[in-house]
Design brief:
The protein is α/β, with parallel strands linked by helices. It is built from 15 helices and 14 strands. The chain folds into two domains: about 1-200 and about 370-390, 3-Layer(aba) Sandwich (Rossmann fold), CATH 3.40.50.2000; about 220-370, Glycogen Phosphorylase B (Rossmann fold, 3-Layer(aba) Sandwich). α9 (about 230-240) crosses α13 (about 340-350) and α11 packs across α14. The longest helix is centred in the C-terminal third of the chain and has 18 residues, at about 350-370.
């Protein structure tokens, strides 16, 4: 099968680009030919009138339409797989693909089909004010903390919705969780076009070996951007109350939010770490802490932990309980509740047997539900079905 991937890379490394590469490698390993049509938001830095051009291309981009039409005619793909189209690829290419009688699948990485900034989150917290075709709220709330940017995001979302670019042209929406799918269906995406297809990872890991904890204070690990949206303030307050427990933070820092020189004595910032350092940190931790205040699609760090037989502590909302099953492969706490997070951490801090059991169950869930073989089988079933009916 010949598969054409469409993606507009962000200005910095992103989980979406990681997933795109995983898809490509997996499909090629299974004998498929993968072609890519991509742009990058890095182009904004050198492009004359880049922001203005990005706004208009997000609505309608004749250059992308012409380029994609030529690519379709030359390569004749069996399916087009969409990841991100903003701002330069543009959703205006979707009717071009449809008119060429090529089926379209789309991985729904975030909530951008409903929410202009894709997060259902702004500086005031979780926000669904734009749902139901009320994109003007992105401007009223200035969700991007820049009125021109908020206006641009609102207009391009409203334009895509009114034109039916996604709902009319995409044959299969690949949602990461049931929670995410419910948000799409509630906002006009046909339920019969929605499928649950979570993220996956390769299977190189510690395998089903038992996790053994070292002597000394237990270590709880956080990996991600250190900012308010990620709930790092909740984590730090819980850490202050757990003085006999060690905490490690890895990731870039929002310096307007956090001073890494003023962390509690039992908290250490590891900086931005590479893949090998990440594996070592995951391998020596008692649990991975995830404290986000927002609806994240499907955090890849969950799979990285499960791959290493490591239990996860996560909030009890959005799609997280679908992945981290309370009392099976981890523990849940009430989102934003410091006292509840403290109680969950202390309950597992010195219980080696329970932590090992949760980690082992996590690896089993990973292998049964989130391995590359499982993803490939389910992906091909969806793609084959829409290819037959298109």
């Amino acid at each position: 099968m010949k598969i054409l991937q469409l993606h507009n890379h962000y200005g910095s490394n992103s989980g979406e680009s990681t997933v795109l590469d995983l898809h490509k490698k997996m499909l090629e390993r299974m004998g498929h030919e993968v072609i890519q049509y991509s742009r990058s938001s890095v182009e904004l830095e050198t492009m004359r009138f880049g922001k203005t051009r990005a706004f208009f291309s997000g609505l309608y981009n004749p250059a992308s339409m012409r380029g994609l039409r030529k690519l379709l005619n030359r390569n004749r793909p069996d399916v087009v797989h969409v990841h991100n189209l903003y701002p330069f690829v543009s959703p205006s290419v979707l009717p071009v693909i449809k008119n060429a009688a090529v089926p379209i699948v789309m991985t729904v990485h975030n909530y951008r089909l409903v929410c202009p900034n894709g997060l259902f989150y702004n500086r005031n917290g979780v926000c669904e004010a734009c749902a139901g075709g009320r994109e003007w709220n992105c401007v009223l709330n200035n969700c991007e903390e820049s009125l021109p940017k908020s206006l641009g995001y609102a207009v391009r979302n409203a334009w895509a919705r009114v034109r039916g670019y996604y709902a009319r042209n995409v044959d299969a929406f690949l949602c990461l969780t049931d929670f995410q799918m419910s948000k799409l269906v509630d906002n006009g995406i046909p339920a019969e076009k929605c499928h649950i297809l979570p993220n996956f990872m390769g299977e190189e890991s510690a395998g089903a070996n038992e996790r053994r904890f070292s002597e000394g204070r237990p270590v709880f690990l956080f990996i991600g951007r250190l900012n308010y949206q990620k709930g790092v303030d909740v984590l730090l307050e819980a850490a202050r109350r757990c003085s006999g427990i060690s905490f490690r933070l890895a990731g870039s820092v929002d310096t307007s939010f956090l001073d890494t020189e003023a962390l509690p004595d039992n908290v250490k910032w590891l900086g931005v770490i590479g893949e090998e350092e990440k594996k070592q940190a995951l391998g020596s931790a008692r649990a991975l802490l995830f404290t986000s205040r927002s609806y994240e699609g499907f955090p890849m760090v969950f799979l990285e932990a499960m791959q290493q037989n490591l239990m996860v502590i996560a909030p009890d909302f959005a799609g997280y309980p679908e992945i981290i099953r309370d009392g099976t492969n981890g523990l849940l706490f009430r989102q934003g509740d410091v006292a509840d997070l403290e109680a969950v951490i202390t309950s597992i801090a010195n219980d080696d047997q329970r932590a090992e059991t949760y980690g082992r169950h996590g690896y089993e869930i990973f292998m049964n539900e989130y391995s590359c073989e499982v993803w490939y089988r389910e992906y091909m079933a969806i793609v084959s079905q829409i290819a037959r009916t298109s």
